[in-house]
Specification:
CBS_dom_sf, CBS domain-containing protein, CBS-domain, CBS_dom, 20% strand, two-stranded antiparallel ribbon, 6 helices, 5 strands, Diverse_CBS-Domain, 37% helix, 139 residues
Length: 139
């Protein structure tokens, strides 16, 4: 395993993002369609927050079924992305090592980090990316 491998080697670059003006119904649709758990919230290309699927599930009803989508939509429309997203986002540069990113995620209570270069979002790295990298190294 290379000790100095940069996070840019494993980060996702085909990004799904949200704007602050989007709504939570749109966000949920993006989570489900893209089978992802974290979406950076951007203004132009600058990251201003991070929304996780867990964040929006916390405000919904845990017992809502598919027949009650109207209730879920109503609940989602009473909150804005800005109210629900994490605002003080820790970011890493693309040259940060995979080890540094793994240590950061281990110490914090989140599972994704935006990768930023010159103030612009260039990728996202998740715990899933780290596990996939580790599995590949062990084969």
């Amino acid at each position: 395993m290379k000790k100095r491998t940069p996070v840019s080697a494993i980060m996702a670059t085909d990004l799904v993002t949200l704007n602050i003006s989007d709504d939570l119904v749109t966000a949920e649709k993006l989570f489900l369609e893209n089978k992802i758990k974290h979406i950076p919230v951007v203004k132009d290309k600058e990251i201003i927050g991070m929304l996780s699927y867990t964040d929006i599930l916390k405000i919904g009803y845990s017992d809502v079924t598919d027949d009650e989508k109207g209730v879920e939509t109503y609940v989602y429309n009473t909150f804005t992305i800005e109210q629900v997203m994490a605002k003080n986002v820790i970011m890493v540069p693309p040259y940060a090592t995979i080890k540094e990113v793994a240590e950061l995620l281990t110490k914090k209570e989140f599972h994704a980090l935006p990768v930023v270069e010159d103030g612009e979002l260039v990728g996202i790295v998740t715990t899933r990316d780290l596990i996939n990298y580790l599995v590949a190294q062990l084969q």
